[in-house]
Amino acid sequence: MIPDERRRRLLHLVEERGSASVADLTEELDVSHMTVRRDIRVLEEDGRLVSVSGGVAKPSRLALDATHQAKLGIRPQQKETIAARAAELVRPGDLVYLDAGTTMLALARELVRRAAQQPAEEPTSGLDVVTNDLAVAAAVGEHTQARVHVLGGALDSGNMSTQGPMTAAELGEFNIDLAFVSASSFDLRGLSVPTDAKSVVKRAIIANSSRSYLATDSSKYGRVAAFKALALDAFDGILSDEDLPEAAREHAKQHGLELLL
What we know:
By secondary structure, the chain is of the alpha/beta class. It has helices at 3-17, 22-29, 33-45, 68-72, 76-87, 102-116, 134-140, 165-171, 196-207, 246-254, and strands spanning 19-21, 50-52, 55-57, 60-61, 96-98, 127-131, 146-150, 154-156, 161-163, 176-181, 186-187, 190-193, 209-215, 223-224, 227-230, 237-239, 258-260. The chain has a seven-stranded parallel β-sheet with strand order 7-6-5-10-13-16-17, with helices on both faces. It has a three-stranded antiparallel β-sheet with strand order 1-3-2.
């Protein structure tokens, strides 16, 4: 069986069952584990499959983002751990961008906590933050020496954040030192979003930042939304948790991305 035919058969098996183990695919296709894993890699890079524990599955489709309130209860421990690691990347004097989302809210609170522990007279005790998330802006604003720049634009009331061309245009007014970008869906092809209004903002973040990190928990991997926003190699690194699949880790390594788990 030639590779293209074998991969079509592999896809058909996964589509029939929803998911399949490497062992089952090896037996069904009568090829080696190495051949199956190589085929999976090719199909995953094309966005046709996604690695899961013990095998592969069809990517899940994300039609709409969950609301801010719903996201607050999802994997809070992982978000706090990611936030703590992200805060270590912030240098004194950095103008920091915090994207919309509850991982960013955890990071905002961590930055405020760390800033509050420094003597008030220290020049590094303040925070300088740009954000399109109203909850993030309020959290950073609790620090008395914080400077908060809130981006205008159309309000996504479910996520309490601004979006669209006006938000993207306002990002062009800043020289951001370090940006943290959130995600509700990503795979080996990159970050995808449910609306074009979100896509233009994601691209503007990267275009106006010296350093940028995708900061998201591993549950968002393997989801796909309607609009492609950014390739993974648009980032300097990825901040996630220990459950990030091996395929994503290997992709990051091959593209020279810093991987912080």
